[in-house]
Amino acid sequence: MKLAYYPGCTLHGTAREYDASTKAVCKTAGVDLVEIDDWNCCGALEAILDKELSMGLSARNNFKAQKTGLDLVIPCSICSHNLSRADTAMKKDEAFRTKIERALGEKYKGVKIKHLLDVIVNDIGIEAISGKFKKSLKGIKAVAYYGCLVVRPSEVSKFDNPENPVSLDNLIRSTGAECLPFTQKTKCCGGNLLMSKQDYAFILTKKLFDEAKAIGANCIVVACPMCHMLLDGQQTMVEKAHNTVIDMPVLYFTQLIGLAMGLSERELELDRNMVPASKLIGSIGKGEANVVVKAAGKAQVAEAAE
Amino acid sequence: MIKSSELDPNFKYEIAKEPGGENIMKCFNCTGCTVGCPVTEIDKSYNPRKILRKALLGMRKEVLTDDSMWLCASCFICFERCPQDVKITEVIGAIRTIAQREAKAGKIKIGNNKPIFDNLFIDSVKSNGKWYEAGVSGTFMLKTKGIGGAIGYAPMGLELFKKGKLSILPHKIKGTNEIKRIFEEVEKK
Predict the structure, then answer these.
(1) Is the terminal CB of chain A with fewer CB neighbours within 10 Å at N or C?
(2) What architecture does CATH give domain A2-116?
(3) Which residues in B lie closer than 8 A to residue A206 (C-beta atoms)?
(4) Any chain A CB within 8 A of the CB of B86?
(5) Which residues touch A83 (CB under 8 Å, ≥6 apart)?
């Protein structure tokens, strides 16, 4: 499989471990990624509500992808939303298409755009990708966190259920790791308020940690660099603001399946995550020790034998 | 009390003309947007149903100067659940665009910092083609929180820098002239 690749700004900056682990996993899965030439910022969350500007900036990347003749894969949920929305408008909204074609001096035909999670779960398929796994991640008790734009709005992202998505849950389970039921899976992390209303952003982020910890998860798995910025990058700030200890590793799903593929921590750039993943990686293969079992309203610690 | 003599019946048409605002008149005020809103959950002053109702009534000034609309986190839950396909997230965007235009003309004042950050971000994309994280974040802190705020942000910046995640200088793409033309086209009225 050969795909055009749009990393977006964060994957060359704060989310560079997502870029590295995406490339490593795709290589192992036999997917060739061709980065599109001279791409630009999609306008991100900052222009998302300035609809024409956001779609105009995104459309330039679609033109670049169109030149490759390949389908386009995007790991960032914000970029993926923006470029997909621009593709639809370029096809359906003649006035908008005329403006952008005039600006760029080219004709638009269209490009098929997919989020990386969609490509891995549906195009490659869980069965085929798990055929590349070399070790079980038993011992990892994860929650799958989709956030907003991976599955919403469903008129843009069509590959999973917008209220109760399961693709990431199923992928996590295929590694041998446990995936716990998580009612916060599509709640907002507050990413778009990080700079302008940090206290609110941190309240929203903390709610996710509260439930993940309460149900006994030892890591959160994400498919969006903004979610990762809040959950991993800002975790110590959330701890400070709420005077608490969270200590929860947050992995990109590509880092998780990379571990199952037997790829090295270095290749997956796990050392670039702000919250160290070493304890989590140490728990792989350790079975079910210290599982909290809720019996008759009382929590008791059950020591399960290896 | 709402004074009907002060209402602007054209406000809803003004919103409907902005990209994203087209469906505002489909709203029948069912409150579905508001019950699912994660921001309303922590701050009752942000109420998307009220913003839409007031806009439809023509309470132009009250809507445009209501700083709570800058609290929308663009999570798209209301967009997804709206039974009337109002596309509320984008309607909020259309109202924000009008508010920014009014603020630029000196007619209203915006109390929330969100547009300051967004505009710095968009300006950096306009000149580089990519966003300049260190520059935009630093300038924003300096503008909104003063030198103390900028210093307070420094440890986080340093952590990111040490992990190789933050570049001191901006990255510029080759096609910045194309970016400029896109801006010119979408800014045309």
Answers:
(1) C
(2) Up-down Bundle (1.20)
(3) none
(4) no
(5) A6, A42, A58, A61, A62, A72, A74, A113
Question: pLDDT means per 10 residues in chain B (189 residues)?
Answer: 92 97 97 97 97 98 96 97 97 96 96 96 96 92 89 86 91 96 91
* pLDDT tens, residue by residue, A22-32: 999 999 999 99
For residue range A161-185, list pLDDT tens digits in order: 999 999 999 999 999 999 999 999 9
Domains present along chain B, CATH in parentheses: 8-104 (1.10.1060.10), 114-187 (no CATH)
Sheet bearing A250-252, strands edge to edge: A178-179, A141-145, A219-222, A250-252
Q: What is the pLDDT of residues A172-219, one digit of tens each?
A: 999 999 999 999 999 999 999 999 999 999 999 999 999 999 999 999
Q: How far is A9 from chain B (nearest CA, A)?
A: 7
The Cα A117–Cα A111 span in angstroms is: 18
Closest CA of chain B from A240, distance in Å: 13
Inter-chain residue contact B163 with A39, CB threshold 8 Å: no
- B176: nearest CA partner in chain A: A40
How would DSSP label each residue in B90-119?
HHHHHHHHHHHHHHHTTS-----SHHHHHH
Instruction: Tell if the CB–CB gap between A203 and B42 is shorter than 8 Å.
Output: yes
Calculate the average pLDDT of chain A. Answer: 93
Mean pLDDT of chain B: 95
Where b means 16+ CB within 10 Å and e means fewer, A175-203 reads: bbbbbbebebbbbbbbbbbbbbbeebbbb
pLDDT for the residue numbered B155: 85
Question: For residue A289, what pLDDT band results from cuts at 50, 70 and 90?
Answer: very low
pTM reported for the whole predicted model: 0.94
Report d(CA A239, CA A137) in Å as an integer: 28
CB contact (8 A) between residue B42 and residue A102: no
Q: Does domain A135-302 have CATH number 3.40.50.150?
A: no
- The ranges assigned to domains in chain A are 2-116, 135-302
Map tokens 């920014």 to a residue: B100
Q: Which ipTM score applies to this complex? A: 0.95
Nearest CA-CA partner of A6 in A75, A55, A60: A75
pLDDT score of A66 more than 80? yes
Q: Which candidate from A38, A188, A272 shows the least CB-CB separation from B164?
A: A272
What span, in angstroms and rounded, lies between the C-alpha atoms of B167 and B161?
Answer: 7
The shortest C-alpha distance from B166 to chain A (Å) reads: 6
Q: SS3 for A233-281, per residue?
A: HCHHHHHHHCCCCCCCCEEEHHHHHHHHCCCCCCCCCHHHCCCCCHHHH
